[in-house]
Amino acid sequence: DAKTTQPPSMDCAEGRAANLPCNHSTISGNEYVYWYRQIHSQGPQYIIHGLKNNETNEMASLIITEDRKSSTLILPHATLRDTAVYYCIVRVGYGQNFVFGPGTRLSVLP
Amino acid sequence: ETGVTQTPRHLVMGMTNKKSLKCEQHLGHNAMYWYKQSAKKPLELMFVYSLEERVENNSVPSRFSPECPNSSHLFLHLHTLQPEDSALYLCASSQGTGRDNEQFFGPGTRLTVL
Prior knowledge:
Largest sheet of chain A: 5 strands, mixed
Distance between the termini of chain A: 37 Å
Distance between the termini of chain B: 31 Å
Helix content of chain B: under 10%
Strand content of chain A: over 45%
Oligomer: heterodimer
Strand order of the largest sheet of chain A: 1-9-8-3-4
Radius of gyration of chain A: 13 Å
Order of helices and strands of chain A: EEEEEEEEE
Helix content of chain A: under 10%
Shape of chain A: globular
Largest sheet of chain B: 7 strands, mixed
């Protein structure tokens, strides 16, 4: 799996957009970008994933650069309940599984 | 609620005990996984089952023994564990194991080995 790099921590004001960056400069053409989050001591929660195009769902938007070397997860209106560790993962092919790095600890502040 | 349940949520056991962790998924998925998350460490994949067959074992010690009797249930049998095995054990499932399959995680079992 391609290696990802994320900032260890970020703060965001409640009600503002949270933009979480991820670098994956060694990503190859068939690797998907996945985002998960983990609230303290709970199981990771799937957020969104994409290959080339930008994606949006009820939780977040995923913006992937044209060269696919980086991406940004956007939480449009962060709430206190969005405080969690956010993991960016790239994944390829059959039998290849998620490798979780240390992630970004997002703190949403009132 | 992700559709993946795990029992028990908390377990304390001695090093000579034998216990089992249970995972059940209600999503109709074909693949199931066990992960381990130790304090201040990233999640580590332990086992992968696809269509009830083990397809991956990430060099896990034999004191951890998985069992997948059907596509909805996954067990992790524990025996003669060590204190360093204390961790959060997470189960996940996915429709398949291909690259376009997100995994859904259960809440985990917090295991303490005394």
